[in-house]
Amino acid sequence: MGAPLLQALFPSMPGYSARHISQSLVLVMIALAGVLVLVAALRWWRLAGFTHPREWRDLHLYLLPAALLLVPLVAGAHAVPA
């Protein structure tokens, strides 16, 4: 779906097909830039959840998800054999 758009925007870049990760990354970056422009133009930063840290509440609710992310790293990172 995005391949024709990428070919139109960047005709000199080779390798546009649905199999390439670089295409997906470029599409995500283009979508991200579009969303950021929209949020900035409409001044929706607060509505989108970007608030000042003094307005943050109930931070203790993030302890369990943070622990679940960090516990596997306690033993160290190990490479998975191919």
What brief labels describe this structure?
82 residues, mainly alpha, 3 helices, flat
**Averaged pLDDT:** 82
User: In percent, how much strand structure appears in the residues?
Assistant: under 5%
Distance between the termini: 33 Å
Radius of gyration computed on alpha carbons: 20 Å
Structural class: mainly alpha
- Poorly predicted runs: none
Number of domains: 1
Number of helices: 3
Percent of residues in helical segments? 40-55%
Q: How is the main sheet built?
A: none
- Coarse shape: flat
What is the N-to-C order of secondary-structure elements (H for helix, E for strand)? HHH
How many beta strands in the DSSP annotation?
0
Structure description:
By secondary structure, the protein is an all-alpha fold. Helix content is 50%, strand content 0%. It has one domain.
Fold topology:
Elements: H1 3-9, H2 21-42, H3 63-74
Quick summary of this structure?
This protein has 82 residues and is mostly helical. It has helices at 3-9, 21-42, 63-74.
